[in-house]
Amino acid sequence: MTVPPMRPWQNAIALAATVLACGALLPLPPHVRIGCAVFAFAIIVALLAARLRMHAVRRTDARTSGVYDRIERIRAERGERRRR
After folding, report:
1. Tens of pLDDT along the chain (84 residues)?
2. Do the domain assignments include residue 62?
3. Cβ contact 36:21 at 8 Å
4. pTM to 2 decimals?
5. Secondary structure of residue 5 in the 3-state scheme
6. Cys staple from 24: which of 36, 56, 62, 75, with CB 3.0 to 4.6 Å?
7. Separation between Cα atoms, residue 80 and residue 72, nearest integer Å
8. Looking at the domain assignment, is residue 1 inside a domain?
């Protein structure tokens, strides 16, 4: 399965999370640094969940119908070639 590229809005969200993570490294008050780190982590987890949902296998896809029949046919043809 090929992985679809990230959409532009997902790239923007990832960049925002990176900026927030970098903000956690600046010499700011501790509550601001912790807030930046927590918010960046939450964004990354949300983006991960969205990406995983995009890759989830849908059982109702039309392209998966008849796959097992096709596999059996390929195996049978392979067996015929080996017997020759």
Report:
1. 565 677 888 889 999 999 999 999 999 999 999 999 999 999 999 999 988 887 776 655 566 667 888 888 898 888 877 776
2. yes
3. yes
4. 0.60
5. coil
6. 36
7. 12
8. no
DSSP 27-71: S--HHHHHHHHHHHHHHHHHHHHHHHHHHPPPTT-GGGTTHHHHH
Is residue 2 included in any domain, yes or no? no
User: For residue 3, is it within any domain?
Assistant: no
Total number of domains in the chain: 1
Tell me how far apart the alpha carbons of residues 30 and 24 are, in angstroms, rounded to a whole number.
Answer: 9
Three-class DSSP category at 83: helix
| Residue 81 three-state SS | helix
- Which residues make Cβ contacts (< 8 Å) with residue 32, sequence separation at least 6? 23
d(CA 75, CA 83): 13
Burial class (CB in 10 A: 0-12, 13-18, 19+), 37: middle
